[in-house]
Write a structure and sequence with these properties.
The protein is an alpha+beta fold and 441 residues long. The protein has 12 helices and 5 strands.
């Protein structure tokens, strides 16, 4: 039974340390196989176990110092499996040792405080088992608190999972503190008390493990929902592109028809009717032609569509374009995500403003030093909170833009002052599209 309890204690240690490192460092190095991390974790725990076994004869102060140094060293080694700076590795390792000591002293204080009125002789082995697992559960609570604090801005984390994570360890601490350790009581019920400690430890490990799995599943569901919404969004944008293309084809067909009528009128000498017909044709064309014609279907159709919507709502819409469409370094699909979301956001921000104050300014251009720039600036009310969860700033729109821009090694910047401005810069890396050759070092 003692061997099993000691083994379970080591497993509990490894579980807590892995939970702590995940909370502090987040990103595991993708090029390292996880099996190497777990082997190193196991080896570190064995080193600590051997250290505890053979420093018993050393003075208390020296044993604490040696154990602390070994613990910090092994923790730093495990931190190297995560993507992090050296400063953060050192900080993470030192902080873990501090909270380990804190949990041990805190539990010892609470245990003695609760049992201070008991003058009966205490079973030493039972006391050591109890204090060992009590300090580990207290350490788990502190690690969970750190994890909650680190993820406080993560909207995907459900509060129910956070609360449930604390329920089992807190109840376990209470149960271990009030559990009797009187030598007479323990002697006749030793197997029961040892099994109780084992089940408490296993319950904490299993409960936390499955709650983390449920939380990951919940995040995956939210991610899939975002993808579904983005797909619907893209269908809408491509529908607009399709309508723009069909409208262009219809316009070409109408122009051919107009040319035919003009040709026949000239042949017949019907010049008075021709003048009247031309006036009607010009008026009809003004209502159907694309306002913007850069040669890029995404720019022309989206700007034309949003310009028409803005004008109907009394919003001033202006676009400054200086584009070599052969040098646009983004696919039409991704361009729809970037420009469509930016325009949606600006339109939403202006929809509740006074019409005299509402405006949208769009700048799209390619530079001589091989940069593709998109800037959308609009008026907005800084005191009005978004009511729509899926608005650009509060939902998945901004994240989709940023992810798409980063895929092209670009950057996005959002600035708020008297106006709201979102800027995107994407480098032109294709040799055939570049004006300047990249420097070689």
């Amino acid at each position: 039974m003692n061997t099993f309890i000691n083994t379970l204690s080591c497993i509990f240690d490894m579980f807590i340390l892995k939970t702590y490192l995940d909370a502090m460092l987040n990103r595991f190095k993708g090029y390292i196989k996880p099996v190497y991390f777990y082997l190193t974790l196991l080896a570190s725990e064995l080193v600590l176990a051997i250290n505890l076994r053979y420093i018993a004869a050393i003075s208390s102060t020296e044993s604490i110092f040696i154990s602390s140094v070994i613990s910090i060293t092994t923790t730093m080694l495990l931190c190297l499996f995560y993507t992090s700076s050296i400063k953060k590795v050192i900080f993470t390792s030192l902080l873990f040792q501090i909270i380990v000591l804190l949990s041990e002293y805190l539990c010892s204080f609470l245990y003695r405080l609760v049992s201070s009125g008991i003058s009966l002789k205490i079973d030493e082995q039972q006391y050591l088992y109890t204090m060992n697992f009590l300090s580990k559960i207290a350490l788990l609570i502190i690690v969970l608190a750190i994890s909650v604090w680190r993820n406080k801005d993560d909207e995907d984390v459900k509060h129910e999972y956070t609360v449930l994570n604390f329920v089992t360890p807190v109840f376990s601490v209470v149960l271990l503190i009030i559990m009797p350790n009187n030598e007479t009581v323990v002697a006749s019920n030793r197997d029961f008390f040892e099994l109780l400690i084992i089940f408490i430890a296993m319950l904490n490990i299993i409960n936390n493990y499955f709650l983390r799995k449920l939380s990951v599943t919940h995040k995956d569901d939210l991610h899939n929902l975002e993808l579904k919404k983005q797909l619907e969004y893209q269908k809408e944008k491509y529908s607009q592109l399709s309508e723009s293309y069909i409208e262009s084809r219809r316009l070409i067909h109408d122009i051919k028809k107009h040319y035919f009528v003009i040709q026949e009128s000239i042949k017949k000498g019907e010049y008075d009717n021709l003048l009247e017909y031309l006036d009607e044709s010009i008026s009809d064309l003004e209502g159907t032609y694309a306002i913007y014609s850069t040669g890029n279907l995404v720019i022309d159709s989206l700007l034309t569509n949003y310009s028409n919507i803005a004008n109907k709502q009394g919003i001033r819409f202006e676009a400054a374009l200086d584009i070599d469409f052969n040098r646009i370094p983004v696919s039409n699909y991704d361009f729809c995500i970037i420009l469509g979301n930016l325009l949606d956001n600006s339109l939403n921000a202006c929809s509740n403003l006074e019409k005299d104050d509402a405006f949208i300014h769009v700048s799209i251009y390619t530079t001589q030093n091989d940069r593709f720039i998109i800037n959308v600036e609009n008026s907005f009310n800084p005191n009005e909170k978004s009511k729509k969860k899926d608005d650009l700033e509060h939902g998945y729109g901004l994240k989709n833009i940023n992810d798409t821009v980063e895929a092209y090694n670009g950057i996005m910047d959002v600035a708020k002052s008297e106006t709201y401005s979102a800027s995107v810069m994407i480098p032109i890396t294709n040799i055939k599209q570049r004006r300047t050759m990249p420097s070689r070092h």
